[in-house]
Amino acid sequence: MAAVQTPRQRIANRLAIVAVIVTTIIFLAPIYWIATTAFKPRALATTVPPTVVFQPEITPFIKLFTKRVQLTQPVDEEVYEAAPWWEKRILDGGERVLRVGDSVQLSAYPDRFLNSLIIAVTSTLLAVSMGTLTAYGFSRFRVPGEQDWLFFILSTRMLPPVVVAIPMFLMYRAVGMTDTHLGLIILYTAFNLSFVVWLMKGFIDEIPREYEEAALVDGYTRMQAFFKIVLPEAATGIAATGVFCFIIAWNEYAFALMLTNRDAQTAPPFIPAQVGSGLTDWTTIAAGTFLFLLPVAIFTFLLRNHLLRGMSFGAIRK
Amino acid sequence: MAHIELKRVTKKFGAQTALRNLDLEIADGEFFVLLGETGAGKTTTLRLIAGLERPTEGKILIDGADVSDWGPAERDVALVLQQYSLYPRYTVRENLEFPLKAKIRRVESEEIKEQVARAAKILRIEHLLDRKTDRLSGGEMQRVSIGRAIVRKPRVFLMDEPLSALDAKLREALRTELKNLQMTLGATFLFVTHDQIEAMSMGDKIGVLDRGRLVQTGTPYEIYNNPRNTFVARSVGSPPMNLLDGRLVKGRAVVAPKRFELPLNGQAGAVSEGQPLVFGIRPEDLTVESGAPVEAMVHDVENHGVEKILTLHAGDAVLRATVSARTNVAVDETVRFAWNPEKVVLFDGASGLSLRHGG
Fold it and tell me: Where's the ABC transmembrane type-1 domain (chain A) (predicted)?
């Protein structure tokens, strides 16, 4: 292929590569910032100009997972010597770890992280499964007023969601669903559903209906044909759609902040609240954010082939 | 095996009428070919029988039972399509097993194995069984597709242009194979095609569809020699029947506009003088010889080996004549031709209907 490139095409290619590199740098810069801050000593986190070369340490992560209080007086030499290595890091920073009896008090971060996981995974599963079935219906059957329905479904995305935040809050409070997992799951499912329907309809439209019809004639019910033939063909699309739904639910901030405060609070509103005792502890916040980014990054990385194929629609065709 | 009957079936898609009052009967064990152009309603007919569509009006009977309300699974028919008919991601074996594994059939795994082996042997695809379907050639794919139909014993085989996507040589080979298969199985086949050669060479009976109406049903011989109207006359034969506008004058055919005359040997019967007619004559029933009555210019010569197909211009009329390959003619030469008056088919000039069919 390269042999038949004209000089003009070569220049265009080079420019495209440069554009890709620049875009990637722009997108990766904040992530680099967070990742480095998460390993910085607290004193270096806010220096101007930023410190680029430093001795990485994991104190921010230790702080992230523990409950601490400010030391009011210096620690005894003996107590310091008896403390495990990680506790010394805390003591060095002028704080001590809270204990009840002998057991270390963990911070709320693991709980909030788990909340995020439960809510994002459940709402993604619900939205993708319901949305895929809906999309299949729209794709394969003559639905009266199909265009109007599809427009109606899409129209739920035409408003910035925050616009309905106050009424949503009042409704949730009225039915007692504030600060519940179910509350956020329903909200994120509803929010993602229209997106899934539209995206999956595109994918399913691309699957020739002859496959299912052959299965119907071969003695299968519509449902069996859907699960045996359509679903495996739509897997790529489902993976791509699933990743997007997961990211949206995982990262959602505004509603989580407003509708939850403890039991069902997700990580996004929790992390910035970790201002620490005294000054804002940016390294702990960065550590929380860094860990929070990992699941999505891993998930996306594992599914990257599906995502690429999923984004170039029609790739499922032979 | 089964007897299929469609009674006054009409199918509408919104404002469009795909089929109009279709009456069709396929006898048990018959190879029935539906011939028609794109959009004539062939595929719709097939889908109605398969149960993938429901008729707007009319009844569909399989072995005398009204199946209009049955789903495709209950009708026990097999379908072979032009393409997209194999399940992707499956191997050939899995494709062949698929219909037998349907819950409604409850086939033992021993028997599944046997049936798959039998079908693979008949179609000579045993060596492909463990291959993925996307690694098959077009001909192999269609063989597997047919295999998936014959692993079970369906009441009727429905085939929607199964050979159209194949290249010419393969098409010819599979044509023979399919016909042999049908005879071996003694099965009822409904075969849909737009290719008149397929229809003529395979069908026990042919039904010609034109814009949702069944124009004529008959054996290939009847369809070829006694077309019911000019549409059928144009649909079969390669090259198709010559159709010449003209009138009857004193028992002779006068072809307008630049007139030439030919005898009819009293074929005219009840036709009145001067009535506008269309004279139909097959290319092979034209003879080119020096003493013949009409002069024509050779416009084109196609050499087919055993024969030559000439395109003749006689006045404004364009005729095609099939002559022996030994006939010595060249383009732009003037020749004389005659027709075999026994073979001329008369059509009414206005309605296009053959006068032999009494209307």
Answer: 113-303
CB atoms within 10 A of CB B102: 18
What is the distance between the alpha carbons of residues A232 and A229, in angstroms, rounded to a whole number? 6
Position A104 pLDDT exceeds 70: yes
Of A211, A219, A224, the CB nearest to B87: A211
Closest listed residue to residue A82, CA positions, set A94, A96, A70, A63 = A96
A219–B99 CB contact, under 8 Å: yes
DSSP B65-89: EE-TT--HHHHTEEEE-SSS-SPTT
Q: Per DSSP, what are the bridge partners of residue B18?
A: none
Torsion from C-alpha of B184, B185, B188, B194, nearest 10 degrees:
-60
* Cβ-based interface (< 8 Å): residues of B facing A: 50-52, 71-73, 75-79, 81, 83-85, 87-89, 98-99, 102-105, 134, 148, 158
Pairing of strands B156-160, B205-210: unpaired
Domain positions in chain B are 4-225, 242-357
Residue of B87, B105, B158 lying closest to A219 (CB–CB): B105
- Checking if the pLDDT of A170 tops 90, the result is yes
CB atoms within 10 A of CB B259: 13
Q: ipTM for the complex?
A: 0.79
- Mind giving me the DSSP string for B137-161? -HHHHHHHHHHHHHSS--SEEEEES
Write out the two tokens for B331. Answer: 């383009």
Which pLDDT score is estimated for B259? 66
Question: Nearest by CB to A210, which of B78, B81, B134?
Answer: B81
Domain B4-225 has CATH 2.10.110.10: no
**Pair B92, B125: CB distance under 8 Å:** yes
Q: B242-357, which class in CATH?
A: mainly beta
pLDDT of residue A318: 38
Query: Which of A191-205, B133-147, B273-287 ranks highest by mean pLDDT?
Result: A191-205
Q: From the candidates B48, B52, B100, B153, which should be mutated to test the interface with A, based on the most A CB atoms within 10 A?
A: B52
Structural tokens at position B154: 């369906």
Instruction: Enter the DSSP assignment of B242.
Output: E
pLDDT at A198 over 60: yes
Output the pTM of the full model: 0.79
- Among B12, B62, B74, B79, most A C-beta atoms within 10 A, so best to mutate, is B79
Whole-number Å distance between alpha carbons of A237 and A227: 15
Predicted local confidence at residue A28, as pLDDT? 94
Mutation for B interface: A212, A217, A221, most B CBs within 10 A: A217
Find, in chain A, the residue whose alpha carbon is nearest to that of B152: A218
pLDDT score of B314: 86
Q: How many CB atoms lie within 10 A of CB B255?
A: 22
Q: What is the chain A residue with the closest CA to B134?
A: A318
